[in-house]
Amino acid sequence: MKPTILITGAGSGIGRGLAVSLAAQGHFVGITDFRTEAAQETCDIVRNQGHQAEALGLDVTDLTQISQMLAQNWPISVLINNAGLQCISTLEEFPIEKWDLLTSVMVKGTFQMTQALLPGMRERGFGRLIHIGSIHSLVASPFKSAYVAAKHAIVGFSKTVALETGNCDITSNVLCPAYVRTALVEKQIADQARTRNISEQEVVEKVMLAPCPKKRFIEIEELVWAVNFLISPLARNITGQTLVIDGGWTAQ
């Protein structure tokens, strides 16, 4: 029997792509998002394709909502911490409320979801924690101070969880893709064009893909198969690691 998967931030982008693909492989997928209607939209896509999923509005920073999620009694064995957002701004002008929001969702939210679901994984004797990091978990870019700080923090958090779960069949790893062309990245293209005073095409060619020898965006399918490997029994000894899918960016 395939493990049940819960994905945060699955109302669009990477989360939606993972949900649709993993459900098509026979997994029951719990689809959560801060925007309830977006989570339901993803769920409808999955169900219309004949697969199993449930949708739930969930703010990963809110312990009350996390408790309500636990009350669904989904036997979650795989947690994909994907919820995230971006803000492009110079450091001097970076809004403090945006800094608080980004770090709260991506760092506190990852912590709280992991803390909530880890006991059930221990009881079932199996668990896979997959945190969606970024190339910016490893390197930095200008105008993304909160995002870079949060994504770096996720790597350290995952390593700590890996050490604390070394005595059972639970693993904790981070996927670090370079740019995946999603709605979030499309917005970044527009924001960076405005901040840098260049065209959107120049942002793609001279900013986003310039450090990448392959000169290609990452596809959702590449992330899906990385997830498939990490949740398999063959990956039981891969924990506390960062799996980098960056077209050679960090090889330089």
From TrEMBL:
Q: Which Pfam families match?
A: adh_short
Q: Which GO terms describe its molecular function?
A: 3-hydroxybutyrate dehydrogenase activity
The top EC class, named as a word, is oxidoreductase
Give one GO biological process term. monocarboxylic acid metabolic process
Q: Which domain of life is it from?
A: Bacteria
Keywords carried by this UniProt record: Oxidoreductase
EC code(s) of this entry: 1.1.1.30
The text of the family note is:
Belongs to the short-chain dehydrogenases/reductases (SDR) family.
> PANTHER family of this UniProt entry?
3-OXOACYL-(ACYL-CARRIER-PROTEIN) REDUCTASE, 3-OXOACYL-[ACYL-CARRIER-PROTEIN] REDUCTASE FABG
By what name is this protein known? 3-hydroxybutyrate dehydrogenase
Source organism of this protein record: Telmatocola sphagniphila
